[in-house]
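Record type: ASSEMBLY
Status: queued
Input:
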Amino acid sequence: MDARTHEPARAALHAMVSAPAHRLRAAARRQRMPWRVPLVMLPILLTLVAAVAGGLLRAGVALPGDELLLGRAALEHAALMIGAFLGSVVAIERAVALKHRAAFLGPLASIAAGFALLLGQSALGAGLLLAAALGFVVASAAVLRRQRAPHTALLLLAALCWLAGNAAFALGIGGEPVFAAWFAFLVMTIAAERLEMARLMRQRRSAQLALFAILGVLVGGAALCAVRPAVGGLLYGAALLALAVWLGRHDIARRTVHAHGLSRYMAVCLLSGYAWLGVAGLAWAATALGWPARDAALHALGLGFIVAMMMAHAPVILPAVARLKLRFGNVFYLPLLLLQASLVMRLGAGATDPAWRGAGAVLNAAALALFLLVVAGSALAWRHQQRSSLSLHQEALR
Amino acid sequence: MNEATPPNDAAPARPAFPYEGDAALRAPIEAALTRVVDPEVAMSIVDVGLVYGVRVADGRVHVRMTMTSAACPVTDMILEEVETELDRALPESLLIEVELVWEPPWTPERMSPRAQRFMQW
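Status: finished
Output:
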């Protein structure tokens, strides 16, 4: 066996953007991971825990602990989940892609916003979220400048949706207009990334135009939510449903689900997410028409679609942004399965029975906790595997 | 090939990138690069057409490659994997250089024929 497997024996150089050969070393230095990104993972996880605790309280589940803190977590559940947690994660991903230190200021602001909100500093928290979104818009514009393509343009548009939502939040506007803008930010970010991947499938130009039209209706619906809630909500729901159909038709997951291992797992997560995106679209439209489907509108989207996307990509994103390498195994399917079952319980039986809704919410949280445990276990498994193969190398060298 | 099988477990069917230099190193380099798989698409970077060219000269292996998206946070991981695989496959005396370029932009036509088959072109 080769003794160099784990420790490359020679200098390996990266260069950015067609750097001439004599600049390779300088470019390699510039490209290294800025700061210690893994250090921000702990506060991000704390914002997730607070957001989940707040969500459980909102679903009628009693929790032990500091009542004031829990009350604030419940009040700011959406801002914590979408702004402080998911917003920070997405902004760190963008900053890692951009490889510019200044791009990390945005996610630092959104993490700080989570703590400010939990400490009752609402104005400071909202201001920090606004600053984070501004930073994210600048970072997304820089990505667009580097690569002028439809998907990078959509990423910038998504960032602008976050900015609009955070501006409305800072102005004290609550409810659907803010939620619609915040979810548009996440949905459009995902759609942009899937469009980029969909280029691997043969597709007509009309398919791309259809996606732009759908996302246009989504943004229009979100904007209308502030002035004509019924029309806005209806359009927003229709756009989500149409997007689910588009993704189900054009996404590479349709092909990669026939692959093996991690690729298949990712595809299964994605396809399950698209089904819940469709449910969310129907529920959003139903809510706009006055039907009691608000929990399904928000959580089929937030948990069924967005958390499934997170579960799909964590095994490839965590090594990149947190330097946490994972050993994939079929155990990753367990939290996904629990998420599906708990959503059926919460949004199915729970639609009419608060007890089922609460039990479903507890199992939603359990699915997230199980996912974190599986990630931690697979990180340990990777290390164990590395250590075992390293000792084999050393034995072979003796 | 079965259309449902991802094309990531063998060498590509045709030369997938321009190569200059020692002919004896061509096969190990191509095999090393083919072992770098993007799990999102279930294909190797060679099959996706991300490798623009390899030049072996003056004690250096120079790889020019791209990504499908400038917003991809996994870029560094893929570049590291390319370095690791080349490091395993090549003599220690060779310096490895992996250059990330954005020009010309990647297009789907760069995919290998079997990658296109896998994606049902």
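Annotation: The two ends of chain A are 12 Å apart (CA to CA).
Annotation: Residues 1-9, 11-35 of chain A have pLDDT under 50 and may be disordered.
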